[in-house]
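[audit] Reproducing an earlier prediction to check determinism. Same input, same settings, fresh worker. If the tokens differ from the archived copy the diff job will pick it up downstream; this log only records the rerun itself.
[audit] input (280 residues):
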Amino acid sequence: MSKVDGVYRAKDLTEDIWGLYRGETQKRYGCGFKNLDPYFKIIKPSFILMTGTPNCGKSSLTYDICMRTARQHGFKYSIFSPEHSSAVNLKRLIEKYTHKPFDHIFKNRASETEVLEAIEFIQEHFFFIDKTGDSPDIDWLLERALYCVETFGIDGMVIDPYNEINPARNNLREDEHISLLISKIKRFNRETETCTFLVAHPTKQIRGADGMFSVNSLYDVSGSAHWNNKTDVGIIVTRDYEREVTKVRVAKVREVDVQGNIGECIIKWNNDTKCYDDYL
């Protein structure tokens, strides 16, 4: 019987299924935080959505996770984060590496030697993507990410935030555009065995009795229910200013027990290091 491209039978997948059985594929990696590890493991491929209330530190936590996994597992990432210049993004990663502030106003700032050591590490583990002139569309971004996979062997990419991607939708509704965008990223992840952290802002913010905003679910993310439906792991970050801690809630796990579990933990922002710490 002739084989038709795109149609598979069970024995065509033998190599893949035994790789899964032996744990050689879908390997689980800790995210670098002991408090968060029971709820979230990184698996390649996967699409990870980071959201939360304004100024809650979701971007900073994403950078912390990337730096910790780079140091612990040797992960490499491409970074698209155009809300800041590439130099500022490098500065943020230097702080994550040294666990010291960078700017001259801080007495405990990283020394020149520590900065140089951090740059040497970041040179090998992080690759910055930016476009001069206008916002790139998702195809442009994925082309550059593919170059990083083929040239540097990256394990994942960071897109921070979603709304910096060119919004041209070719007559698609926003929800259709978001569905297509997520599908393109997930296909890229599958074909390159990588993960993606995408930071997206919420649209529906409910102010509680304490006057603070909250994000109740991934359906509150701006633009589409597809953020909840199509993500592999969805994480909601909320800062509790009164207790001076940050709540990290894993609100969606596609493969429960394999990639984590629904639940919440607490971490704490350390202004002396410009990093998050486990809350003891």
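[audit] rerun output stored. Observation attached for the diff report: Helices lie at 14-21, 58-73, 86-98, 112-125, 138-152, 174-192, 226-230.
[audit] end
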